[in-house]
Structure formats: structure tokens, C-alpha cells
Amino acid sequence: MHEIRFYEDHARITIIDNEKRNTILNNLLATNIFEEVVTGINELYVKFDPMSFSDEEITTIISAQNAQLVAGIDESKQHHFPIDFDKALDIDLVCNDMDMQQVQFQNWFLTQKFTIDMMGFQPGFAYLSHNGEAPSLARLGSPRSIVPAGSVGFLGKTACIYAHDGPGGWPIIGGINIPIFNPTLNPPNLLQSGDNILFRPI
After folding, report:
1. Which residue range(s) make up the domain with 91?
2. Could you tell me the pTM of the whole model?
């Protein structure tokens, strides 16, 4: 059983494995019991009504969902994004740290299946993880004042997609031309925690 800690009207569930965390996320959302389910790096947070459910009952519910398997694949959770490597502002830096040639790194990147761990930093900003072998890379020594929307950042074990123009310190290895945030839509985010992303050459 994963560690569960309670804080009045919400609980924090520590789940290191990305696939298990996203499976449990989807299962908990499907129960319609929780007022809110939010994913973070290695954790899930659930908000509930303590007048309706005790800590023990919430633990039982979470444990039951943990034991279930998600049947099939939700195609709405799969995204295929063309990535433009010509927008790779920091490709030399990343390739040096990854000990790869540029074409080798790009081919490796395209074989990775990325999962959105959480949304944050700015509206629509997506934090991604993958199960490939990679070292942890450092952020830029001097963050940029403007990173173009659609830029794909890479820190080895994690990646990100910038939803808006704005400041940022992630090394940029390419960019997508698909808007991932639109305030006129409901929900405004194209991407959600637990979604999977496959990149393909543009």
C-alpha cells in the first residue's frame, strides 16, 4: 500500500511509479467521491468532505482503487505532437550532457513515451516524465526572459511544454505548433495530468 497522510479535509498519497500514479488518478476521478483530485510529482492529493467520510473510509476507498486495473486505453488521453527540432535553442548543450550526437538524441527522444505528471508554473504549462534512461540535466545558468510558446524543455529525466511566451530556464530541444492553452475553451487546457504524449518529426 502506498503512503497516505491526512490533513483535515484532504489526503496526500505518495506514489513514485508514474504509470501506477496515473492509473490511480483516473480511478479516483471515476469514483465521483472526491471534491478534487490533483496530481503532483510522485504524489496525488485528494480533497473530501470529512463530515461524510472518515480517514479510515477514505483509506479503504483509495486502497480499492489502487487494486483495480484500468480497462483499455482512453484515446482522448493520447496526444501525437509534431516537434520542430529547428527550434532547438540548446541542442548542443543537451547533446553534450546526454553524450549523444544531435541525430542520435533526436531519434532517442522520438522513441520515448511521455506522461504528463502535473500542470503548473503558468496556465497550461505541462511537466512530463518518461521511463527512458537519461541523466538529470541542469537548468540554464542564465534563464531567458522570453521562451516562445510551444517550446519543449528537457532536463534529462523530465521535460516540459511551455503554453505561453514567458521567462524560463529549461534547455529547449524543440517546439510544437499546436496551441495547448485556449482561455475561450472549457477546459482551457488541451493537456491534463495523466495524458500521454508521443512526439514525431515535423
Report:
1. 75-201
2. 0.71
